Amino acid sequence: MIVNVLQRIYVKFMLAEYLSKRIIPSGLVTFVDMDRVTWKKTPNAVAGAALLLLAALICAWLLGRNAYAGQAPVDHFSEKVNLALRRTGHYLLAETGDTSSRIAAVRQKDANTWLLQLEHSFNYDRLPVLLQQSLEIHGIRENYDVAVVNCLDGALQLGYNFLDFKQNNGAPCGGREMLLDCYNLEVHFVKTTPPKSEKHVLGWIVAVAGLLTGIFLVARNRRKIQPNVVPETEMAFSGQVLFGNSRLDPGNQTLISGASRHTLTYREAKLLHLFASHPNQLLERDFILQSVWEDEGIIVGRSVDVFVSRLRKLLRDDPGVRIVAVHGVGYRMET
Q1: CA distance 118 to 131
Q2: Distance of CA 108 to CAs 77, 139, 186, Å?
């Protein structure tokens, strides 16, 4: 769908550019005069450009996500853990009747462990519920271990794992009394490096495939439209019109001028065939319009001048052919 949208945008852009280059003060070139061969070739170029653009966007998105992954979220996570532990400490102390003492600052021991010091004992049975509530409020859902450690000797007094509480609605060692002492509440988050998601890998595959396909289509299209030297052995004379040092194949809309081959539009081939069929004859403008444009039902006088200008450029490698304008009358091909 993206490719189709980009193709339509590109076609509209090319149409506007084409008309802007071929608008003449005394008249407009009609839409039916536009290059038919060029429009036939456009889908390959558009598809290639669209795939290149899509691949570039996917690559930029993937690189951007990788570049910033793990930076801002880590700092934000630390801030959330700090707030969750302070909330837990407040309610643990409040349930013991302590609503005025200062709550110590939360310290981070390492990348995954945070510590809150409580100056006296608390109700251990309430710890799992209050801590889980505080973490959920701040959107923290990682697995974690909890340890209650004596401040003075560092001895582990109590503790549990996140799954103990979630599966059993309680923590081991619940109901035991705590000595009136200072305790450190340590929370260690068990973080694992997530494997690369299939979508992430698929994104890289799509980006690379799109990039290679786009390059192939663009290169293929460029190779088709570039003039190339034609060996004599490739020249087929059946059905061709010879004039000067040039050769026109009306059926295939191909002009061989000097050593170069040009692919013509439908209208260019028809007009050149008319001139080549009447060498050194003066063709009046009305006769040219009726012969070349009558099938469209829309005739614009200045179309002749535009297409004659194109043919002159295509024949510039053949000094033996000239298309001469006779003012007020028409044109003559001199060979």
Answers
A1: 14
A2: 12, 19, 9
Could you tell me the CA-to-CA distances from 310 to 41, 98, 205, 322 in Å, in that order?
A: 19, 94, 44, 13
Residues ≥6 apart with Cβ < 8 Å to 237: 247
Taking the CB of residue 50, how many other CB atoms lie within 10 A of it? Answer: 21
CATH topology of domain 227-334: Arc Repressor Mutant, subunit A (1.10.10)
Polymer length in residues for the chain: 335
Instruction: Give the strand order in the sheet containing 241-243.
Output: 241-243, 246-249, 254-257, 260-263
Q: What does each of the 335 residues of the chain score in pLDDT, given as a tens digit?
A: 555 655 565 555 555 555 444 444 434 444 444 444 444 445 566 666 676 677 777 766 766 665 555 444 456 899 999 999 999 989 988 888 888 888 889 999 999 999 999 887 888 888 888 999 999 999 998 899 999 888 888 888 888 888 877 777 767 766 667 776 788 999 999 875 444 455 556 666 766 776 777 677 666 666 554 444 444 434 445 578 999 889 999 889 999 988 889 999 999 999 999 999 999 999 998 898 888 887 766 566 678 889 999 999 999 988 989 999 998 899 999 98
The model carries a pTM of 0.39
- Nearest by Cα to 183 from 138, 143, 158, 148: 148
- Beta strands 330-334 and 322-326: pairing type? antiparallel
Q: What's the Cα-to-Cα distance from 214 to each of 12, 13, 218, rounded to whole Å? A: 20, 20, 6
In the chain, domain spans:
72-189, 227-334
Taking the CA atoms of 288, 292, 295 and 296 in sequence, report the sign of the dihedral they define. negative
Q: Find, among 42, 47, 52, the residue nearest to 225 by Cα.
A: 42
| Dist CA 229 CA 261 (whole Å) | 7
